[in-house]
Design a protein that fits this description.
Layout lengths: L8 H9 L21 E6 L3 H5 L5 H9 L6 E7 L1 E2 L2 E2 L19 H15 L4 H11 L3 E7 L12 H6 L2 H5 L4 E3 L5 E5 L4 H15 L5 E5 L11 H11 L13 H27 L4 E7 L10 H6 L5 E5 L11 H10 L4 E7 L1 E3 L5 H8 L9 E2 L2 H13 L4 E5 L4 H6 L12
Helix pairs in contact: 3-5, 8-10
């Protein structure tokens, strides 16, 4: 499939052929708003509703997607990875909970039993969700958590056993390292083998009837540390040993970005190849933290300039209710001129935490009440959206939110006077 050049990109492409500039710009194809003027995207983590028992069969998945039919949701992101395992049939990784017979939480056991029963019955959860989206006029993006593996503790290793893949277990040499070589749990994108493993999952997802891939950089950094390839690259560029330096030294950003931008380009190429087979273009998006994206290796300027992203979600890796200036990200995208949409990323939960294995045992024994959580209200969403739209946001991305009333509202909220703080 030939990628289309934008009106801005065409003259620059010609200039590149003449040697005036070195890099052509390709057009992004941002999803169009639906039932409103602003783009609304909702993320489903692909696990929690199995944990609670709300998803038990294919009909439940179709029913959930159908709840968005009369809303402004234009893109439904269905997360396919937890840790480095998956929730759909895969030859690259294992189903969540493969091989487990003991679980830390009752909900984990329910989720694993349901996913494995569905697979045994021949149900491909990603295919079911993608087909349901198409039936309801909604785009389906498969969401990949970029580094979700869990550390094991002496008190509880249940999440590590449940979510971390066989690849993770077989290759401790590919994990993020501290300055003294300490194992920091996460897989490092410094290694081509890790990038290939992640891309293989992406390639399998793209073989389903999806419309794109969403890369979630908020779940969970870091992506690099003091691995030997990173140390050598730092020494080659700056002439010093980086191990005495903090991992937050700004000089790390461009070095990490080289590997991560390679990953983005490879992901875009896979989607272009899959799109050619499907006869349509497949999109690519990224969710990043507005404070730490550059240090983590996310070179937004290059990603936008090269037209790698179709929409960019700018958020914060904390509980919800945060505020920041979105305008610089809007300007960055507009200046790139490739058509990437910029969305404010909302986290719906404002207080609370995931239940631990120890808490679940106390709750089951009647010795503890379930932990309480608070969420953004419809009116809070409405007021906040007006500010983000005034700052130039093309839409809103919703994480940990499933209320259709919210989604019926956010596509039509008028911008507030002035700009967001």
């Amino acid at each position: 499939m030939t990628r289309r050049l934008s009106a801005v990109a065409r003259p620059l492409f010609v200039a590149a052929l003449l040697g005036v500039v070195s890099l052509p710009l390709f057009a992004a194809e941002a999803p169009s708003p639906r039932r409103g003027t602003k783009l609304v995207v909702v993320n489903d983590d692909g696990f929690s509703a199995f944990y609670t028992g709300r998803y038990q069969n294919a009909a439940d998945l179709r029913r959930q997607v159908a709840t968005y039919a009369d809303t402004s949701v234009a893109v439904f992101e269905w997360c396919v990875t937890s840790g480095s395992r998956v929730n759909f049939p895969s030859r690259t990784s294992e189903l969540i909970g493969a091989g487990l017979t003991a679980f830390g939480r009752r909900g984990d056991q329910l989720a694993v039993e349901t996913l494995h029963r569905l697979a045994a019955e021949g149900t491909d959860t990603l295919d079911v969700v993608a087909q349901a989206c198409r039936a309801n006029g909604i785009l389906c993006y498969a969401s990949l958590r970029m580094n979700g593996d869990y550390a094991a503790s002496a008190a509880d290793d249940s999440l590590s056993r449940q979510f971390n893949s066989d690849f993770w277990r077989a290759h401790p040499e590919f994990r993020v390292r501290g300055p003294k070589g300490e194992d920091r749990t996460k897989l490092s994108y410094a290694y081509p083998e890790v990038r290939a493993f992640k891309l293989a999952v992406l390639r399998e997802a793209a073989a389903r009837p999806i419309d794109g891939i969403a890369l979630d950089f908020l779940r969970h950094p870091p992506f690099f540390g003091f691995e030997e390839p990173m140390v050598r690259a730092f020494q080659a560029k700056h002439g010093i040993d980086p191990r005495p330096l903090p991992p937050t030294d700004a000089r790390w950003g461009p070095i990490r970005a080289e590997a991560m931008t390679t990953f983005l380009r490879e992901a875009r190429a896979i989607l272009d190849a899959a799109g050619a087979k499907h006869g349509r273009r497949l999109g690519l998006s990224a969710r990043i933290d507005h404070r730490e994206y550059a240090l983590l290796g996310c070179d937004l300027a290059t990603w936008l300039r090269e037209g790698l992203l179709d929409y960019l979600v700018v958020a914060q890796r904390t509980l919800g209710g945060y505020e920041f200036d979105l305008a610089p990200f809007v300007k960055l995208a507009r200046d790139a001129g490739t058509g990437c949409a910029v969305l404010f990323g909302e986290e719906g939960i404002t207080s609370g935490h995931d239940r631990t294995a120890a808490e679940d045992k106390l709750i089951a024994a009647g010795k503890m009440a379930p932990p309480e959580r608070a969420s953004l209200s419809l009116e809070q969403y409405r007021r906040r959206a007006a500010r983000w739209y005034a700052a130039g946001a093309d839409g809103i991305h919703l994480f940990n939110e499933s209320d259709p009333a919210v989604m019926r509202t956010l596509g039509t909220v008028p911008p507030a006077p002035g700009r967001a703080p």
